[in-house]
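pinging the channel bc i need a second pair of eyes. not urgent but kinda urgent?? the chain im working w is below, pasted from the shared doc
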Amino acid sequence: MLLFRLARRLARGVGDAFRITKAFDLAGHGRYPEALELLDRVGPNFRYDCEVRLLRGALYSLLDRHDEAIDELVLAARLVKADKSLTKTEANYLVLYAVQYFEYSLDQRGITLVRGEVNDALRIEPPVRIAAVPHHLRRKFPLRVEFPAGIVDDSVTR
């Protein structure tokens, strides 16, 4: 029985890893509904939770599901900040990725004020040195908007 459960868990993990990878690929090609559908089939997996929530929040925003985007992106930012495997620069970069979609969704909903704990979750420590962020993170989570001076240090090309 124990061996069966372990095999099932392993198979689920492999399937989830495939779905997550495919969802990023679909999102990168503008196929947002399909990417979201794949993410919705991913089970609870703490190893990929930050990545899944960041992508899901961005997809919600891109699909005009702004209330869901706002909630998902705040949760993603909290998870990123709690993830001890990320460097401070990596965490700041990923929170900045969440912020770009969060602000867009706020704007689309006409929201101008947010609670203090939401601000805390989305606060970064500038400047975010883009050159210090690993290429795989920049490729999976691209910054698509211009940020005010002093927030991003992109003196080295992306």
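so The chain has a mean pLDDT of 89. and Strands lie at 128-129, 152-153. — does that match what u expected or am i reading it wrong
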